[in-house]
Amino acid sequence: DAGITQSPRHKVTETGTPVTLRCHQTENHRYMYWYRQDPGHGLRLIHYSYGVKDTDKGEVSDGYSVSRSKTEDFLLTLESATSSQTSVYFCAISERQGAEGRAFFGQGTRLTVV
Amino acid sequence: DAKTTQPTSMDCAEGRAANLPCNHSTISGNEYVYWYRQIHSQGPQYIIHGLKNNETNEMASLIITEDRKSSTLILPHATLRDTAVYYCIVRVRGNDMRFGAGTRLTVKP
């Protein structure tokens, strides 16, 4: 299995508080992704990174920011958490860009905003 | 961007082959077809991918039609542990990867 660690695995937080989720990889892969998964919506891309300090928005990026200061870490921040951001968050990594790059996923972080 | 269409759900008897179809009629020439699966609430797992030719690995086989407008994932001897949601994805625009609703495969004893 690819070396991907998401932390924390579970978190309960209050509305309006900032939250940061961490994705750490030991594979030295260039590409990293954050997804959220909700019932009835499947997996939706939030943000992705194609290198250190290089990030781009996905389809559901509102309310989220990301940072990647090192190859191995990709942080997802909810500046002011809302109940609609209660979800399971998955990080993924990929070695190559474009069509050849198969992705590997972490085990997910279950976030509850109360 | 190429879209995919998959049946919502399928059943398969344990020990039999599971054939999961995917339609991607708008696929472009340089787009690959990927298959992933998600077992219960775990992170998705890569299965296989291909461009034009049929592919086989230790998990599955991928059959792509000659016109590339559809493909079939084959699990040759399905087990109860293959019960999962299976996603067919056409890789779009380089870096992002969009998932659809997938097919929920239930393997029955």
Percent strand of chain A equals over 45%
Main beta-sheet strand count, sense and barrel state of chain A: 7 strands, mixed
Q: Quick check: average pLDDT of chain B?
A: 91
Tell me, briefly, the overall form of chain A.
Answer: globular
Helix content of chain B: under 10%
What is the helix/strand order of chain B? EEEEEEEEE
Q: What is the string of helix and strand elements of chain A?
A: EEEEEEEEEEE
Count, helices of chain B = 0
Task: Give the termini separation of chain A.
Answer: 34 Å
What class, by secondary structure content of chain A? Answer: mainly beta
Strand percentage of chain B: 35-45%
Poorly predicted regions of chain B are none
Strand order of the largest sheet of chain B: 1-9-8-3-4
The poorly predicted ranges of chain A are none
Radius of gyration of chain A: 13 Å
Helix percentage of chain A? under 10%
Written overview of the protein:
The complex is a heterodimer of chains A (114) and B (109). Chain A is mainly beta and 114 residues long. In chain A, 35% of the residues are buried. The N and C termini of chain A lie far apart (34 Å). In chain A, 0% of the residues lie in helices and 58% in strands. The mean pLDDT of chain A is 92. Chain A is globular, with a radius of gyration of 13 Å. Chain B has no helices and 9 strands. Chain B has a 5-stranded mixed beta sheet, with no helix packed on it. In chain B, a hairpin with a 5-residue loop joins strand 6 and strand 7. The mean pLDDT of chain B is 91. The chains are: A mainly beta (114), B mainly beta (109). At the A-B interface, strand 4, strand 5, strand 9 and strand 10 of A face strand 4 of B.
